[in-house]
Amino acid sequence: MTSSSEGLLAPTRRALLRRIAVAQAEGRAPSLVACVVRDGEVVWSGARSCVAGHAPDDNVQYRIGSITKTFTAVLVMRLRDEGLLDLGDPLEKHLKATGVGEVTIAELLTHSAGLAAESPAPWWERTPGSLRPDLADVLGDQPFKHPTGRRHHYSNPGFTLLGALVEELRGAPWEDVLRQEVLEPLGLHRTSGQPQAPHAGGWAVHPWADALLPEPVEDLGRMAPAGQLWSTTADLARFAVFLARGDDRVLSAASVLEMRTPASPSELADVATGGAYGLGMQLQLMGGRMIVGHSGSLPGFLAGLAISVEDGLAAVTLANCTSGLPIWGLAADLVRIVAEAEPTIPEPWRPLPEVDQAVLELTGPWYWGTGAVALRLTADGGATLGPLSGQGRASRFRVRDDGSWLGLEGYYAGETLRAVRRPDGSVSHLDLGSFVFTRQPYDPEAEVPGGVDPEGWRGLPQ
How confident is the model at residue 3 (pLDDT cuts 50, 70, 90)? Predict the structure, then answer.
């Protein structure tokens, strides 16, 4: 990934600078650093600081808090892709004697295991991890707050368990595994468990006065997989590109897409605001744009990583204050500014390189009962099926080796679409998970379940 300060138009760069300047001033952050990535390239970076002439750059480390969870999730997905575990496995299958072994790995990744949000007192973010040397100390006597699998309830101890799972299956400390399997392959040389100079100091800002208090920097110990990491905007920009595209040295594009897919039961408030959670990743509909990534906070620090895969954009925001600045919303706003000011220019339309006549004859209008839909071929060799007008069930499909089609999304995800042919080879109808689609509404020449009245369509006598 390269960097280009000339990648955006001057008005766009000024709008971005103004946005972080307002955020730093109104949020009263001692310092704030940000960058924007477009099509895999850093196209803008900026910073603000309360100390004249000492604005941070893209090499200064900040603590990134719960963005660490996404890194931990990547390690778990690697174990899954290697066949060492299944996301549906109970934790007990791989990690014994935790006392919560009935929860599944997927439930831990999606914060739906029903575990407590925090470890027992004292406040783990401001006290040494040595106070919680064992998993039992992290979980406490009453680890469950909700029935398993029923609702999304954010859990820091849940990701501690996932870190312990990585250590158990790899036979090495979590941070060592992370460095070897993720940080080094992706070139994230300024991401680490302990701060490395140059790094920012963490501050609390008095709520009613412009006064500062230094925050302690604690080693989180067992809780490290939930929030230990320090990083830079440059490193997190590379990580954002990976989360959007995948990298076969770490995880495939299909696996990172799985991470970005909603996977957890949402609360009503989340449903109302378009929020969801995938496998170690937050998802939020903001201004009609789906933002994926993660936010992070620890005493003295705030961090935001926001990605719009559809726009080919990402933004990173890092600040060294405990609260007062909506850091993930700020990152999403930087994405919005670029997307609206300089929208993506589509690639030129090009015809398909080749056309299968047997598939081409399946395109066009079909009817499920009386509902009209259309089957269209796509440039990637797949197909879409959706309503001709208005809203309704729609999905993309991927062709299988046997000529059938696999639904990829929506109501038809995982369902099979196939063309049913008559003895003479002509197409009778489409079968989609037992639904019959015909060329005419209730076509009498097709195998419509329940049959078609032999007298056909008729009017109603007056």
Answer: very low
> What count of residues does the chain have?
462
The partner residues of 296 in beta bridges, in order of sequence, read 303
Tell me the pLDDT tens digit for each residue of 70-105.
999 999 999 999 999 999 999 999 999 999 999 999
Q: Is the pTM of this model over 0.90?
A: yes
State whether residue 107 is helix, strand or coil: helix
Q: Which amino acid is at 170?
A: R
Helix (H, G, I), strand (E, B) or coil at 319: strand
**226, 124 Cβ separation under 8 angstroms:** no
Strand partners, 49: 31
CA 35 to each of CA 3, 98, 261, 338: distance values in angstroms, whole numbers, following the listed order? 10, 41, 25, 12
Please tell me what DSSP assigns to residue 61.
B
Residue ranges in 28-113 assigned as alpha helix (H)? 67-81, 105-109
Q: What separation in angstroms does the CA of 123 have from each of 69, 127, 134, 223, 300?
A: 19, 6, 16, 12, 14
Give the up-direction half-sphere exposure of residue 277: CA atoms within 13 A in the CB hemisphere.
24
Q: Is the pLDDT of residue 234 over 60?
A: yes
C-alpha 376/C-alpha 396 separation (Å) is 10
- Tell me how far apart the alpha carbons of residues 226 and 160 are, in angstroms, rounded to a whole number: 6
Distances from the Cα of 409 to the Cαs of 92, 231, 262, 405, in angstroms? 32, 35, 12, 12
- Tokens 């009778």 -> residue: 428
